[in-house]
Design goal:
- By secondary structure, the chain is α+β, with helices and mostly antiparallel strands.
- The protein has one domain.
- It is built from 1 helix and 5 strands; from the N terminus they run ββαβββ.
- Strands 1, 2, 3, 4 and 5 form a 5-stranded antiparallel beta sheet that branches.
- The radius of gyration is 12 Å and the shape is globular.
Length: 71
């Protein structure tokens, strides 16, 4: 995704916080094979108890879609 220029964000439905995901840092921390598909993460906003989902936008897309697939 990083190599192809995708834009990845996290979005918390509880508080509305939207943050850009640093794919380079993520690859360094988790390894290049780590996937954000079907994952959630605790919201980074202080005091929020929500869980953010990950959404991505490929270079030819007009909007971000949730990184979710059926198992």
């Amino acid at each position: 995704m990083r190599r192809l220029g995708w834009d990845v964000i996290s979005r918390c439905p509880t508080c509305g916080l939207v943050m850009r995901v640093d794919l380079g840092a993520l690859a360094t921390l988790r390894g290049p094979a780590f996937s954000l598909w079907n994952r959630k993460a605790r919201c980074r906003r202080l005091g929020c108890t929500g869980y953010a989902s990950f959404q991505a936008r490929a270079p030819d897309m007009a909007w971000h879609d949730e990184l979710r697939a059926e198992d």
